[in-house]
Amino acid sequence: MNFLACFVLICFFTVPLVEGRVRHYKWEAKYEFKSPDCYKKLAITVNGKTPGPSIVAQQGDTIIVELKNSLLTENVAIHWHGIRQIGTPWFDGTEGVTQCPILPGDTFVYKFIVDRPGTYLYHAHYGMQREAGLYGSIRVSLPEGESEPFSYDYDRSIILTDWYHASTYEQVAGLSSIPFVWVGEPQSILIQGKGRFNCSTPGIQAGLCNATNPECTPYSLTVIHQKTYRLRIGSLTVLSALSFEIEGHNMTVVEADGHYVEPFVVKNLFIYSGETYSILITADQDPSRNYWASAKIVSRNSNTTNGLAIFNYYPNHPRRYPPTVPPPGPRWNDTEPRLAQSIAIKSRQGYIHPPPQTSDREIVMLNTQNRINGNVRWSINNVSHNLPYTPYLIALKYNLTHAFDPSPPPDGYDFANYDIYSVAKNVNATTSTGIYRNKLNTTVDIILQNANTIIPNNSETHPWHLHGHDFWVLGYGKGKFDITKDPKNYNLVNPIMKNTVPVHPYGWTALRFRADNPGVWAFHCHIESHFFTGMGVIFEEGIEKLGSLPKSIMGCGDT
Amino acid sequence: MNFLACFVLICFFTVPLVEGRVRHYKWEAKYEFKSPDCYKKLAITVNGKTPGPSIVAQQGDTIIVELKNSLLTENVAIHWHGIRQIGTPWFDGTEGVTQCPILPGDTFVYKFIVDRPGTYLYHAHYGMQREAGLYGSIRVSLPEGESEPFSYDYDRSIILTDWYHASTYEQVAGLSSIPFVWVGEPQSILIQGKGRFNCSTPGIQAGLCNATNPECTPYSLTVIHQKTYRLRIGSLTVLSALSFEIEGHNMTVVEADGHYVEPFVVKNLFIYSGETYSILITADQDPSRNYWASAKIVSRNSNTTNGLAIFNYYPNHPRRYPPTVPPPGPRWNDTEPRLAQSIAIKSRQGYIHPPPQTSDREIVMLNTQNRINGNVRWSINNVSHNLPYTPYLIALKYNLTHAFDPSPPPDGYDFANYDIYSVAKNVNATTSTGIYRNKLNTTVDIILQNANTIIPNNSETHPWHLHGHDFWVLGYGKGKFDITKDPKNYNLVNPIMKNTVPVHPYGWTALRFRADNPGVWAFHCHIESHFFTGMGVIFEEGIEKLGSLPKSIMGCGDT
């Protein structure tokens, strides 16, 4: 009893206050029929839900997730998006990079520290399972006694996604087959897991769509008049760039990917897959009615209906439709306001992490769409990335040569002769499993260079996400990046730090990061089908600093 | 050069004649869109085909199948159905019993000897993947110079299956969910991978069904007038018992599951999932036209259209429809002719393997349908079997206790008080991973006792398949097996040996086998959803005689 009392005391005084609490979650991933947009399909749920349970923690807490795979014949892995995994690179959850997939029946224990406050996400990182519904939110608050540089009355989280009726398997079969079958536009946009597909659409199989299913009741965010809400918005779309707005209400952007933003006001927030934002919104409009929250696809000419939710002023009924037509949202092909928002996001005064003023290495990454052996693929500097079956982390640590291509991908492309405004003369590319290796504690610049796709007069938006690090966003530009002139205009004063950033059509985005986190890290376009068809690279740094790897991440390929 | 010449000579003279040839196959399992019955769905193919490539070998040959798993996120395992795997129990291909599942990207090498001539099958044995299309045929011929006790001009193989439009995942989700969702009747019957679904069926999603797709052209078996054909027929139905016939032609049954049958003539052949038969058929009818081959569902009141193929008399066009209405087939609920056929199958004179006249152990297995925690399950003696995630073979060999339930399932049921003709008073049952352990080289009798399901006045047909052994079929009976009287009527003179046998509605089937093959072996109902919901048991014998297990079968559960 004395021992027990002592243990309790230790837990209470030592662990919570000094080292952070331990937050223990028991999760089960499973296939279940769900109708998030009224159309019944199999989804991967966590504990019966999609989105899955939220992780709510405090800075410095240790998160333990015991994940049981109950998918029967399919493996799984979960990535903790935005968590840098300092000291735990093996728990990043990226199949093929940091771990073997988790087998059916197995329980894998993820254990990591949430070392920064902010808004983060989690999602499957294996095949294209994310789009099957395995995702959720992570909210990390400041330690007791510390406060944010802005005030609000309530804190709420929502995740935006797009939703397909075809299964992951069907989509993958199309993307891998000859002729190539593109996944197409999503069937609906989900706001916090709720959307609405038109069940009267011709050609729908009988019995699958039910407009009165309570599962597809629009998400309703209840607010009290004159109160201010911190709304944490994350996007985990499969494909779509979105514009999010709440009818008649301005939004003040205060956080991006866990970093404080010098506040600015927008009517609509552009958000790309993998990004998170906190906005402040005051319920300062006529409280006798509800208002539409709307998510519209931009950057693609999509026929998908806007996603709708209800911004509900208490005590109006939360499901009472607003009396107005939902806002139409911005034009899909107007790049200017999107670029303007990207540029507007700066680090907040007093919370600036100054970037290194110079870098040790500069990699220019030309983003192109290509044809390889009859398939459509995406490439970086004409190399389309394939994931190996032996995770890089294990292969590098234990010198499992042959696990991947030893030659690194190129640091640039034919700057002088490549016309980013035209379809490439030669749309072929090669595939590789090769990686970029960086010296530990060096500074690396990445310039993402967009270009024309294989369709004339078309360039897409790609949201790039870096694992294991936040990077500084040094600048955005239009056209071809000039390696001599453009770096002179880099923002080295108050650049925002992020983990996901868009490269706009025909434009470039410049990033800088410190290669200071020993491990192996993916950097990829967060569009599910783009990463699947080659749009990613791998960075390694300081592998020699790592102790022995947990056995639980092994069991596949050469391991 | 001398060494090479010597090696070639050894191969030529020693291996082929004395030890059998090595037959080396390289297979890739993959998801691809197929329209075997005109309806497009994802199927698991082997080298692009479903049914997959046939294995054609000679008695004593060594089969090597290098199976590459290209299913992206899903594992796989293939069972060699009817091959006893003497000395290679680890290559039986039964996930959870003899091996861990094969991970995506991995290549697993199966290596085994086909030690008996005859007609066998292969199929996935993991989750419910068999029904996704991963199956094919194995034909083992006699050694050169030996001949069968019957003659024919040509040798042909066909496999019968039933086919669902819902994915394996959708079916499994229904079977595992509360409320329980039954998979229902199949959408079509496939003869050698070809069937025909009515694309005009109301409620079908637009664009998925195309009646003019050449993939669903009926299978056509071309024959020459007055020639005799050995037709090897296997059934790998998911659910259905079938009656197969060729309009206007008698069939002489000569082989069952690799054993010669005392010939008998039938108009239609009843065949259950997991069985194979060779029939002789002479093309002795009017050669100016084609004839229908037809497969009809029996034992269930199914609305599934009969499967049709064309028995094509050369030189008529192979796709020319016969001028007649296809034969309707027997009544679905007439058990008598099915029982009569079962009883008619005896071992051929001169080829009888005499059974042991007594047995060392007798296990009566009551087959019941039950409810467990709100789900519908199947049980043996009120125990519904669950597969563990650590394969039994590995757990037993390396004493991995906790891998499965240590208590064995019961050897019988409450004979005196159980009414097999009624729904059980208590339909509950328990689940277990426990197994039956037999002493090596003992003789075991199994009596499969059928009963009423949870629906009044309903008893189904269950085809039971034993891995690693052939058993003698000692008898069939109606009603409740009498442990005192019925064994006196066992056929101990010329019982057929088989690996799969039906137990008819409200009837019993008695088997005897020698527990002489060290390893761990599944014995289960071959209906995919029945095994999945508990209708199986596991036998172990002589595990102590096995040397070390191949590493390739490990990597899951506690291994």
TrEMBL record, chains A, B:
Residues 32-141, 157-315, 422-542 form the Plastocyanin-like domain. Gene3D superfamilies: Cupredoxins - blue copper proteins. It catalyses: 4 L-ascorbate + O2 = 4 monodehydro-L-ascorbate radical + 2 H2O. Its EC number is 1.10.3.3. Keywords: Copper, Disulfide bond, Glycoprotein, Metal-binding, Oxidoreductase, Repeat, Secreted, Signal. Its cofactor is Cu cation. One of its GO terms (cellular component) is extracellular region. It is found in: Secreted. Dimer. This is L-ascorbate oxidase. It comes from Olea europaea subsp. europaea.
